[in-house]
Specification:
single chain; mainly alpha; two-stranded parallel sheet
Length: about 140
């Protein structure tokens, strides 16, 4: 198994830099397979979502299928795969960023009742509470 960084995954997905895309394609097609997969840490999914949305202007509706494809690619092993899927489902249905959805899922899995945040958009989602003086008690 080898680890895959976000920039390699972005080049493979977008094919937007000819030289780097060719190298990423050679890695994915020539070296990675079910028996020798690439490993994706959860932070790579967070970074991928941020890069697609910020640097490339992708909408949530465009990012969701990209993440789904990454999660079903058989030559990749995603850290805490079921958790990554659950966060993707939350992201697809809500307003919070993928990273926020993942944070809430991880906290819930670790036994947290909910996750406090100052992010008003995230606070509308399941698993979050807006941190205010009124709800500290």
């Amino acid at each position: 198994m080898v680890g895959i960084d976000t920039n390699v995954l972005v080049r493979q997905i977008l094919q937007d830099n000819e030289e780097q895309a060719a190298l990423a394609r050679a890695l994915f097609e020539g070296r990675l397979d079910v028996d020798n997969p690439g490993h994706l840490p959860l932070v790579v999914l967070c970074e991928l979502t941020w890069v697609l949305g910020t640097a490339y202007g992708y909408s949530r509706q465009q990012i969701v299928p990209v993440l789904r494809q990454v999660l079903v690619t058989d030559c990749l092993v995603v850290e805490r795969h079921a958790l990554a899927w659950a966060a993707l489902n939350d992201y697809a249905a809500g307003n919070a960023d993928y990273a926020d959805c993942l944070i809430a899922r991880i906290n819930r899995e670790e036994g947290a009742e909910f996750t406090f945040t100052f992010d008003r958009k995230a606070a509308k989602g399941e698993g979050f509470r807006l941190l205010t003086a009124e709800n500290l008690g």
